[in-house]
Amino acid sequence: MRIPCPYCGVRGLDEFAYLGDATLIRPDPAAPGAEAAFHDYVYLRDNPAGLHRELWQHASGCQSWLVVTRDTRTHAIGRVEVARDVAAARGSGAE
């Protein structure tokens, strides 16, 4: 698999480190039911077949954190975004 880094260009998978699901949102620890919400956040994960957004770091390159949209059936990369931009859009409600 080859991942197109927005800063370095297309690179091999061996340059990247996988963190996990990029769609998860950390629960509010002050919210009612926070303990159960954190249990689900930490332990319960989907195993999707198809397009999935994942968090990767270009560990052996520019060190950027990226949100990669990948088809889990074929490993085809559909989109790569800088994680900072995704987080900013999420904070502004644009996503």
From TrEMBL:
Gene3D superfamilies: Folate-binding superfamily. InterPro entries: SoxD, SoxD_sf. GO terms for molecular function: sarcosine oxidase activity. It comes from the Bacteria. GO terms for biological process: tetrahydrofolate metabolic process. Signal peptide: none annotated. This is Sarcosine oxidase subunit delta. It comes from Methylopila turkensis. The lineage of its organism: Bacteria, Pseudomonadati, Pseudomonadota, Alphaproteobacteria, Hyphomicrobiales.
